[in-house]
Amino acid sequence: MRAVRSRAMVSRSEGPERLDRQEWLLIGLMVAIWAVMLSWDPRLTLHEDARRFVEIASAPGAPYRDFAVEYPPLETILILLVGRGSDGAVVWRLAIINAASTLGCWLLLRRFWSRRVATLFLWFALPIQFFMAFRLDALSVLLMIGAIVLAERRRTTSGGILAASGVMFRIWPVVVIPVFLIRRRARAFVIAALVALFAGIWWVAISGTDAVSQVSGYRGATGWHVESGPGVVEQVLHPAQQVHLEGGAVRIGSMLPWEVRALRLVTFVLVVTAWVLAARRSVDASGGPALAAVSVLLVLSPVFSPQYLVWLLPWAAVTASERQVRDVQIFTIGAGVFASLAIAIYIWNRYPSVLEIVSLGRIICVVGLAVIGFTHARVATRLSDDRVVAT
Questions:
Q1: How far apart are CA 186 and CA 361, in angstroms?
Q2: Which DSSP letter does residue 251 get?
Q3: Apex CA 68: angle with CA 65 and CA 74, to 5°?
Q4: Which of 1, 167, 222, 376 has the fewest CB neighbours in a 10 Å radius?
């Protein structure tokens, strides 16, 4: 059966509505969190990604060729631009980029989906703002949402180029790009694939073939990230193993080549399955199918840093808006709370033994979102702001 477009898709654009009290409250809380984090000692906030950005920007020579870099080319270019100067200046630049990207996602969701979707996005983003303020991942989400909006508004070339930019910035949007096919924007899909392919060839030609392995292998790391799905399994099966710092992350055990290849194969099969199912359902393709694809990618990845959760948020918001039950809200907010607890453990270096439990909680929440994404097949039609019935 051919998929029918849902009422929440971006093809239906309404005029801007005034912000309600809930939106003002959520935005105010975010701004308050950002202000508190910015007023903190920069040395503390530089504990994670920001310190690495400063290190990359100040290193002599060319990235990838003269020193290893774990970030894709477009993000590396941005890091070189924002990572120079004093610690305080770097922290402020990152905070501004995160704030602009987060609010940009909210505005696009509000304008081209619905106010309900945008408000859910704010709720989902709130718990992770305690550490997102100094990271760039929200920008990749903004690029992908913008690409979908452009393609839906018949600007398929621009949408495809923007989607390819998202892939070259953070790789993960590659699992969401099939949304163009489900939305019957094949031209945007083809352009995204071709631009990403030629950009990748250009990157390898300039930086060398080792650049790809630096990004895919996180600077040659051999252990599982302790917060990843495989890392949690490794800790459960071999509790006596010692964790170690490698490639800028805490790791455990050793990743055998066949294990990594098997995980990538399973990830590919499950992502394809999510989009095949999407073609037969009437749900918004940027909801459940995208949520399933990104959730699978996160659960099976050798690295699952807390900030990666932002990749899920818009697709979770769209899915939650289509459902009568609150399962998506519970799992998404729960994952955000667990992620913030993990950051707190790292910052204060207290109770590291609890990290395994916190990581397991986050993995369970994301697995729950993956299951919902794969099984979500009915759209609930809102008759009013607080009354929902199934179609």
A1: 38
A2: E
A3: 80
A4: 1
